[in-house]
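Bumping with the actual sequence this time:
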Amino acid sequence: MGIQLVVSLLAATIMQRMAPHCSFARWLLCNGSLFRFKHPSEGELCALAGKQVAKPNRRDRRQNGESKPLTVPKDIDLHLEKAPVRVIDALVLRFFLEYQWLIDFAVYASGVFIFTECYCSIVDASKEVNIGAIWCVLTVLFGLKTLHTLMSHYFGSEEGGERSVCLAFGFLSLLVAMLVLVVREDYLEFGLEPGFNSLFNNLETFVKQQGYADWSPGYQADCEAWPGCSVCLHWSSLAFPGLRLAQTHLDAVQMNSDRPLIQILLHMSFMSPIIVLILWVKPIARDFLANAPMGKTSVTIVSSSAFDSMRLGIIVALCVLRLAMTRYHLQAYLNLAQKWVEQMKREAGRIAAIDIQKKVTRVFCYLTVVTLQYLTATYLFVVFFFFCIGDFSWNPGAEQTPGVTPALVLPTAAPAASVVLDDDEEGVDYMEEDIQATVSRLSESFTALRSVLTPLFFRGFFAFLTWWVAACQVLSSLFGIYFHQYLMQS
């Protein structure tokens, strides 16, 4: 048991034991900074409406068999009461347990990742499996599972409008992804082409070593199109988070109209995916910084080897900024209850009291879903996993290898030494030999897998995935801005 595995088991134990007592997810929602709006009771609505309340009489009850709902005028002077979000209120919310598990697991995964990076920088752990990367990819998988669970509820809607939006975004993403994949590496430097070349060359060498001399990778073009097909379902799950982000961004900016610094940070957080897109456009990012035009000469601002580390650092900083803006977006969402009441006051007619209570309560009941959509749409752990597998370095001056694995040479297990044993020790010796043979076979399998799946391949694949997550957020959030600014108002 290496030190990485010990720290991982310790982190898992602490997470399990401390979850009922200390939870970052609960603190994020229930630290007293978020305020919800209580729904008015029927007595309060009756007092505000005065004599205009339409109360059911006995004759209506005998005719209809049931009492008519209490109705009040829409233009009553209704002001909702504020109350801080407490733990006892949040525990009854739907998807709260899923939200708490995902956020807490992400926090502990960050701690394990930071420890493994410090450990690998001090000790030569090139032959060890980076457990921090495993925690990161598990966080990504849990986040995708949560998004797909939320999307399944949209598909189960009776009206079918949400289902149509998800399908439309999914087919549009497939079209755009196929167009992006045909762009040359001179413009979008994902590294997919050299990564797949490295993968198939090593795979061909590995298969020939197994005795299949006539095998050749004849489906390389189909495999290169696979990343574009895989993002289709992913963007369908990011459609409604982008639309929700656009609405909360507009409301948060309006809510902080007297705080220009917060408005600047909100705009930077909203525009952060566009910055990520630009970082992978080679003529704008790498070529400009490596050969910046200065009159008739060119100046190297950042070396090409340091650009990858700088790019990852910028993405992490933008993710931290988005996490810091979480409270403003969530409070802007909770203010939708009061915003709906103000809009109701400008309308004519009457409305049932139960409808007012439902509208106000529904906003708070949807809080954990909005929080999950906001936080899981980030790409921080994709970057972490991209960094670990791709052999990047946080040090801008560090020399980075291209990640190409040399010729595959599978290790062979050392023969066990023959020793004459007694009858009592013979069974124990056979068990030890079986364990050693199993360990040897597992070591050979992992070594062969690491030789086939080179860091160069992981660099290209996860670079495309990180860029595409940012592209999904940009397209869906910009469409959300257009929808809420123009279509809803018209």
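The tokens above came from a reply further down the thread. The radius of gyration is 29 Å.
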